[in-house]
Amino acid sequence: VPSLRIIERSFTEKAILAIARDLFNLTGDVSPVYSSLHCLGVNGSLYSDGPEELVGYRVRSGEYELIVYKSGAIRYSMMGAPKIPSKLPSFSQAKEISENFLQKVINYGLAPKTPLIEIRFSNVTIGAEAIISNGTVDEKYVTLLLVVFDVLFNGTPLCGEIGVEVSIGDCGEIYEFRAYWREVEIGEPVKITVSPEEAFERFREMHETMIATKKGAKKVVINDVRLSYFAYAPIVIQKYLFPVYLFNCTIYTDEGVFCRYLWVSATNQSMEISLSLLKSWKKYRQILFAGELEEKISYMVVSIVSTLFDDRLLNSMNFIRLKEHNIRQLVFN
Questions:
Q1: Angle at 178 between CA 176 and CA 184, to 5 degrees
Q2: Residue ranges of the chain with pLDDT lower than 50?
Q3: Alpha carbon of 33 to those of 10, 121, 216, 237, 295: distances in Å?
Q4: In this structure, what are the phi and psi dihedrals at residue 146, rounded to the nearest 5 degrees?
Q5: DSSP secondary structure code for residue 84 in this structure
Q6: What are 44-100's pLDDT values in tens digits?
């Protein structure tokens, strides 16, 4: 199958400041973002001891931060924990707010220009909750709604750390905007070394444990399987999206029925990495990281969980990200 080569974009400091000001009402100094995390070739081989390279630019002002990556991905976020909302939008209002802002970003020229790339609305779900206790009664509040958009190539959803997510908070404020899309072009052919039968067995091996953590999970129905492409987090220096089998699944639980995409690598080389990460995941029940270390450490968490899920599944699991005073905590229940 053809590989998808990532096309890097060129940004000047002036352009980064304009993006921050015009789209996010953010002012501040521009600082470089470096990474030594490399993904080699078209098979997804990942290592973390390579030379540092420039991967993007950061603008930070107080609790607000914008990172524009050379790959074209964008992340804007508020570093403080979301407040208890006085007026949280409805699901339909959150969808409208997100679509309007996404269109604004597209009109600014930041979305992929490849005609085979499509951005399609997926779902709205609860993004974050807070529990306040008065000593006798615990009250739960929804603090964020999460609006998710899939990124598709030639009609097939791409997977991994790729997609658009908008977190909407009090009075419709955008708490976080992640446009983890990539500008791509068709590259050199890559050989599929994992058969569909092997992929199914590995799917069971890799996902069975994780699916079982879904409260009240009863069964998983695979609706169809197709070849797709995987992206690591944009902090990883990745030249190609590598091929995977994409499983379109329906998960039946006590909480309801969920339609999700799960994936298995289509090459043996990246599959070995995936299995290694699966073993590592069991060791990381709680991970703390802060400040500048976040970009370098978070890839491990992102790689582990992305190896096991598509983002949409993570959003429906007990996956909690707490942000407070530049310290982030990932808690797996």
A1: 170
A2: 271-333
A3: 14, 30, 42, 12, 8
A4: -110, 125
A5: P
A6: 666 666 789 999 999 999 999 999 999 999 999 998 888 888 899 999 999 999 999
CA atoms within 13 A on the CB side of 327: 7
Alpha-carbon span 174 to 102, nearest angstrom: 11
Return d(Cα 190, Cα 208) in angstroms, integer: 28
DSSP 267-303: SHHHHHHHHHHHHHHTT-SEEEEETTHHHHHHHHHHH
**C-alpha to C-alpha distance for 282 and 284, rounded to whole angstroms:** 6
Give the Cα separation of 140 and 251 in Å (integer): 26
Rounded to whole angstroms, what are the CA distances from 256 to 209, 215, 216? 19, 10, 9
Cα dihedral 207, 303, 152, 118 sign: positive
User: From CA 78, how far away is CA 66, in angstroms rounded?
Assistant: 9
Q: Are 59 and 17 in contact (CB under 8 A)?
A: yes
Cα–Cα distance between 143 and 158 in angstroms, integer? Answer: 29
**Measured in whole angstroms, how far is the alpha carbon of residue 126 from the centre of its chain?**
16
Determine contact, residues 77/25, Cβ cutoff 8 Å. Answer: no
Give whole-number Cα distances, 217 to 99, 200, 258, 317, in Å. 32, 19, 10, 11
Place of tokens 């030594």: 36
Q: Cα–Cα distance between 199 and 265 in angstroms, integer?
A: 8
The pair phi, psi for residue 91, each rounded to 5°, is: -60, -45
This prediction's pTM: 0.76
Q: Are 146 and 122 in contact (CB under 8 A)?
A: no
Please tell me the distance from the alpha carbon of residue 32 to that of residue 34, in angstroms, as a whole number.
6
**3-class SS of residue 197:** helix
Beta bridge partners of 220: 251
